């Protein structure tokens, strides 16, 4: 059976927040590349937030600050909504 691979959509807010965490575009993209790969294939790896349609996935720390990626998904897409220090 073919693996379902969802389209990954980066929302504008996500892009702005990512660039504020990592200013250089290539390292910033590399930082989230593995998360995009995993979420496109299995978005259930994260955990629900209080909002039932928004999920959260912990990321590697940046300068000793824990980072969380927030996203939503459907059968065809994953939307990267926000990325922030917690």
Q: What do you see in this structure?
A:
The longest helix has 17 residues, at 25-41. Helix content is 31%, strand content 37%. The N and C termini lie far apart (39 Å). The protein has helices at residues 12-21, 25-41; strands at residues 7-10, 47-48, 55-62, 65-73, 77-85. It has a 5-stranded mixed β-sheet. With 86 residues, it is α+β, with helices and mostly antiparallel strands. It is built from 2 helices and 5 strands; from the N terminus they run E-H-H-E-E-E-E. The model has no long low-confidence stretch (mean pLDDT 94). The chain has one domain (7-85): 2-Layer Sandwich (YaeB-like fold), CATH 3.30.2310.20.
Keywords:
single chain, 86 residues, alpha+beta, YaeB-like fold, five-stranded mixed β-sheet, 2 helices, globular
């Amino acid at each position: 059976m073919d693996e379902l691979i969802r389209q990954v959509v980066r929302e504008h807010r996500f892009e702005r927040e990512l660039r504020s965490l990592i200013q250089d575009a290539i390292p910033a993209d590399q930082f989230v590349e593995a998360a995009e790969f995993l979420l496109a294939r299995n978005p259930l790896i994260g955990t629900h937030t209080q909002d039932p349609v928004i999920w959260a996935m912990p990321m590697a720390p940046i300068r000793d600050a824990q980072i969380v990626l927030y996203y939503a998904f459907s059968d065809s897409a994953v939307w990267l909504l926000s990325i922030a220090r917690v």
